[in-house]
Amino acid sequence: MFQWIVVAVAALFLLAGLSLFSQLYPNLVACWQAADWPTAVGVVNSSDVLESSTSKGTPTYMATVDYTYSVAGRSFNGYTIAHGFESTKNRETHAAIVNILQESTIVAVRYNPESPQDSTLSYGLHRSMIISLTFLALWFIVVPLISAAIIMDSSFDRKLIENISLAVKSAAG
Asked: Distance (Å, rounded) from C-alpha 109 to C-alpha 118?
């Protein structure tokens, strides 16, 4: 009975991992696809580093941007530096991004040709995505391993018992 409880809990954790992956996947795809998206000239309207804190009070930072660009005569506003880009504890990275955006207010904006309002300033895998993918990979490796270890630890060790029995029989014989 205990083994089925462990399997059920592990299944719930794996479903939670799949849910996390389903949230990450669109950004992952957009990171790769954006490399091949057409570009438009964009104007940076504003950029800043926002500071917030975790529930434990640790400061986190997020570079933000507001830019305008035109595609086929239509004007769009964009706010995406990179798909899946997240806040971090490393202020320097975010400050460097804002410094670049403030040095030249003209930027190359990559936009989705099928949905021009979907845009980004950068593309490809970046640290936020790599951290998320590493976390998910570990999640999908560690959860089954811990579950297997718990099940093996709680199961009857028949081989150990057989080997003890064989040693007793051979000593008596």
From this structure: 10
Alpha carbon separation from 165 to 34, 64, 168 (Å, rounded):
66, 70, 5
Distances (CA, A) of 158 to 52, 165, 169: 55, 11, 16
**Distance, CA of 93 to CA of 136 (rounded, Å):** 23
Distance CA 9, CA 149 (A): 14
**Which DSSP state fits 46?**
E
Distance CA 23, CA 5 (A): 27
Nearest 5°: CA angle at 58, between 54 and 61?
80
CA distance 95 to 73: 33
d(CA 141, CA 148): 11
Low-confidence ranges of the chain (pLDDT < 50): none
What is the structure's pLDDT at 172? Answer: 55
